[in-house]
């Protein structure tokens, strides 16, 4: 297994909230992007797709540019009244070995996608189909959800949400995430021994400033 594959597996095992905190509270996508199946986790390098609302031509093209383990990140401009992705594209993605999908918009065939076990994060569901007529772009920077995503950025998703990590920062983020997990485990032990969160976080002085004793 390559080093980057090992890093991706490690990030997948870490919580998105932990990763977000570990990299200085950056890289989070907004909470409107929800997993279809919150029991699934996802991590992989992004293949970015910039499409026109109501058209999925460039998604079909983008699938010819992917590698196993990639995450397709589609900016559908937040358009909710059409689903540019459904069960057939999910099957195509599974056959290609993709790790998941993020859509700044809607998808359809939600139950079928869940049954197929493919991680999908989106803003909603729509039964309406799309055209295949409009141009777009693949592997260009896309900006939505409060984050900019470049092709090759590592995107991680779980029940809590989505976070983006630059490939140049992966090792540092993993190390800081592990340190954070260790500190939280020590905190759990201390709580079970009777200490309070006020004590552990040294909040006494702050509370006293507000007259809270």
TrEMBL record:
Matches recorded under Gene3D superfamilies: Ribonuclease E inhibitor RraA/RraA-like
EC number: 4.1.3.17
UniProt-listed CDD domains: RraA_family
GO MF annotation, one: 4-hydroxy-4-methyl-2-oxoglutarate aldolase activity
Keyword Lyase attributed: yes
Keywords from the UniProt entry: Lyase
Highest taxon listed in the record's lineage: Bacteria
Classification via Pfam families: RraA-like
Enzyme class: lyase
InterPro entries (alphabetical): RraA/RraA-like, RraA/RraA-like_sf
Name of the protein in question: 4-carboxy-4-hydroxy-2-oxoadipate aldolase
Organism field: Cupriavidus pampae
Lineage, opening ranks: Bacteria, Pseudomonadati, Pseudomonadota, Betaproteobacteria, Burkholderiales
């Amino acid at each position: 297994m390559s080093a980057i594959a090992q890093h991706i597996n490690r990030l997948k095992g870490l919580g998105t909230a932990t990763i977000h905190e570990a990299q200085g509270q950056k890289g989070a996508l907004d909470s409107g992007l929800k997993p279809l199946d919150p029991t699934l986790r996802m991590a992989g390098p992004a293949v970015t797709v910039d499409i026109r609302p109501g058209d999925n031509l460039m998604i079909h093209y983008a699938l010819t540019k992917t590698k196993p383990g990639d995450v397709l990140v589609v900016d559908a401009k937040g358009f909710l009244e059409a689903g540019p992705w459904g069960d057939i594209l999910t099957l195509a993605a599974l056959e290609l070995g993709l790790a998941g999908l993020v859509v700044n918009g809607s998808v359809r065939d939600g139950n079928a996608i869940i049954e197929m076990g493919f991680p999908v994060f989106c803003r909603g569901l729509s039964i309406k189909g799309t055209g295949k007529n409009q141009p777009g772009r693949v592997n260009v920077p896309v900006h939505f959800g409060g984050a900019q995503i470049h092709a090759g950025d590592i995107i991680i998703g779980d029940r809590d949400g989505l976070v983006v990590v630059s490939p140049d920062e992966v090792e540092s983020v993993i190390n800081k995430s592990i340190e954070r997990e260790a500190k939280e485990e020590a905190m759990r032990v201390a709580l079970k021994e009777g200490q309070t969160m006020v004590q552990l976080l040294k909040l006494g002085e702050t509370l006293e400033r507000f007259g809270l004793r």
